[in-house]
Amino acid sequence: MWKIAVGFVLFAALALFIIFKAGDKVDMQGESGNPTEAHAESASATAAEKAPASLPAATAAASAIPAVDPAALSASK
After folding, report:
1. Taking a C-beta distance cutoff of 8 angstroms, is the pair 26, 19 a contact?
2. SS3 assignment for 16-40
3. Domain boundaries defined on the chain
4. Which residues contact 54 (CB under 8 A, 6 or more apart)?
5. 6-51 pLDDT, tens per residue?
6. Helix or strand or coil: residue 69?
7. Which of 22, 26, 25 is nearest to 14 (CA)?
8. Inter-residue contact 60 to 53 (CB < 8 Å)
9. Rounded Cα distance, 38 and 30, in Å
10. CA-based angle 24:29:32, to the nearest 5?
């Protein structure tokens, strides 16, 4: 038990030392890239999915999903 307490104190001391040495230079924002870059990539990917070439694949995928019978759902209640 004492080893856990000593480990915690050492870890906390190391963390405080690093924080105080860094001062106001610590960046807590995570990935600080261009925020519009990711949105532009996803928008172009969405536009590519909506292209007419992808329609046959989409209709084939939709026809593979079985239809749900509303009567069967109400009978199980």
Report:
1. yes
2. HHHHHHHHHHCCCCCCCCCHHHHHH
3. 1-25
4. 48
5. 999 999 999 999 888 888 777 777 777 766 665 556 656 666 566 5
6. coil
7. 22
8. no
9. 14
10. 110
